[in-house]
Amino acid sequence: MHTNGGEIKDYEGVNKSKLPQLPLICVNTTAGTGSELTIFSIITDEERHVKMALVEKNMTQMCAVNDDKI
Fold this sequence. Notes:
It is globular and about 40 Å long. Helix content is 0%, strand content 29%. The chain has strands spanning 13-14, 25-27, 40-45, 50-55, 63-65.
């Protein structure tokens, strides 16, 4: 959320950012869950000992790289 400033905990919740993020390219994991294609993120805040949910329309990628030969 670099383009919006603040700290990641400022974005806990739904659609807290005002500006689009910098271009983002995601690479999928071997788990194959499709999490690189969603607007949902779970971030662990080790300081507060909580997992934050970020649901952000401005956090979607512009491209996802998938290698089907793995």
